[in-house]
Amino acid sequence: MAPSALDVRTWTPPPATQEKLDYAELAQVDLSKWPAKKDELLLDMRRAVNEVGFWFVVGHGITDEEIGRQMSLGNAFLDLPLEEKRLFPCDFKQGNFFGFREGVRLMGKSQVKDNAEALNLPKITPSLAHELPGYDFIAAHQVEIEAFQRKIHSNVLAPLLSLFALLLELPESYFLTPHEWDRRTEDHLRYMKYRPNSPEDDRAIGNIHLNGHTDFGLVTILFPQIVQGLQILTPEGEWKYAPYLPNGLLINTADVLSVCSAGYFKSTIHRVLRPPDDQVNYERMGVFYFSRAAHDLELKVAPSPLLKRLGLYKEADPNAPVVSGLEFTRARVKHSWDRPVYGDDEYKKGFKVGGLEVRTDYDFDSKAELKRVVA
Ligand SMILES: O=C(O)CCC(=O)C(=O)O
Ligand SMILES: [Fe+2]
Predict the structure, then answer these.
(1) Cα(210) to centroid(ligand 1), Å
(2) Distance between CA atoms of 283 and 275, rounded to whole angstroms?
(3) Which GO terms describe its molecular function (predicted)?
(4) pTM
(5) Which atom of ligand 1 is nearest to the CA of 225?
């Protein structure tokens, strides 16, 4: 019998690396303290966001089985024939990231193509039904994908957004209300797979599978990744590997939260390298949830008492055009992805949307330069 959309082979994780890598020391925030031990959790969060800008969330209630099942679904989808995956490509001309992203761009000045592919799925909710890519495979698994997305939203995103607001001494609902489940946002669940490169290709691209970058939304949730490669730029200006923590969700703050907090929450720079030798021949399957700006969010500094005391608050210029979350995100995606070469010189120039200048050059050689950027 021909395989049907309902047949999903169970994905099995490759073995952990035995190599001694230089790992970042990351805080762990236990979300089972939410909301009963809110004050304690706020202290934990303050430490986590101010240290590296990447931290682990534990006690979130999402099981290994649920995560493993999503890895299996993502893996099965990305193993479909290319013609099928190509049915609903991301419309980069419009800065629309929903759909399939093929590994077609050339990496910098090399002749090597991007070795990663991804499928980005909007929240499965009526207000965004028109954005859901119409694959039979997704339709066949829609109910469980929606349930997983909803669980991420209620168990992880909602408490985090509330805690960000409380840290800024804003009403708890400040970020959450515009990003409630049913509201239109550019959030997406992503299945992403890097396929092994030949040693020659990796040499040609300096072993970099994903250039240094920041993420475009409020916060990114990375499900456990056993195949090493992700590196974080620490406040000391050093690239350190993100450790693997079973059932720990890796969290990082991103551009929109940085704009809304005048840089109090840093948009953390990270990149992905060729895996260590004992994992280099495995595919690197990943599941992520990218929280992105609500369509109607105004990109401006929040009127936070903390930011005011720190001298970071700046009232928006009443004559400057208001940039919406939708405009910002679409411009950001278009700038990054609507180009044949990944990370070319045009890309590195950054771009402007409304009165907002967005920096996109995170390729450095010297430690001094790294330090300047993260300061
Ligand atoms: O693959 C990873 O570990 C990170 C991917 C990432 O940073 C991104 O897609 O923005
Ligand atoms: Fe990223």
Answers:
(1) 7
(2) 10
(3) metal ion binding; oxidoreductase activity
(4) 0.95
(5) 3
Contact (CB, 8 A) for 160 and 42: no
* 344: phi then psi, degrees, rounded to nearest 5: -80, 180
- Which of 29, 24, 53 is closest to 218 using CA atoms? 53
The two structure tokens encoding residue 45: 């969060």
* DSSP at 196: P
- The pick from 78, 233, 272, 284 for probing ligand 1's pocket by mutation, whose C-beta has the most ligand atoms within 8 angstroms, reads 272
**Which DSSP helix (H) or strand (E) runs through 200?**
helix 199-204
**What range does the domain containing 254 cover?**
5-374
Give the contacts of 151 (CB within 8 A, at least 6 positions apart).
61, 62, 66
Q: What is d(CA 167, CA 181) in angstroms, rounded to the nearest whole number?
A: 22
Angle between helices 136-152 and 64-78 (to 10 degrees): 150
Give me the number of domains the chain comprises.
1
Between the CA of 303 and the centroid of ligand 1 the distance, in Å, is 31
**Ligand 1 atom index nearest CA of 284:** 1
Q: What residues are in contact with ligand 1 under a 6 Å CB criterion?
A: 210, 215, 225, 230, 270, 272, 286
Beta-bridged to residue 120, according to DSSP, are 99, 190
320: CATH:
2.60.120.330
Rounded to the nearest angstrom, the distance between the alpha carbon of 286 and the centre of ligand 1 is 8
pLDDT per residue of the chain (375 residues) written in tens, 0 to 9: 445 556 799 999 999 999 999 999 999 999 999 999 999 999 999 999 988 899 999 999 999 999 999 999 999 999 999 999 999 999 999 999 999 999 999 998 899 999 999 999 999 999 999 999 999 999 999 999 999 999 999 999 999 999 999 999 999 999 999 999 999 999 999 999 999 999 999 999 999 999 999 999 999 999 999 999 999 999 888 999 999 999 999 999 999 999 999 999 999 999 999 999 999 999 999 999 999 999 999 999 999 999 999 999 988 888 888 899 999 999 999 999 999 898 888 888 899 998 888 888 776 554 555 555 544
- Other C-beta atoms closer than 10 Å to the C-beta of 164 total 25
Calpha distance 40→56 (Å, rounded): 16
Residue 185, strand partner residues: 294
Nearest to 186 by CA among 252, 253, 122: 122
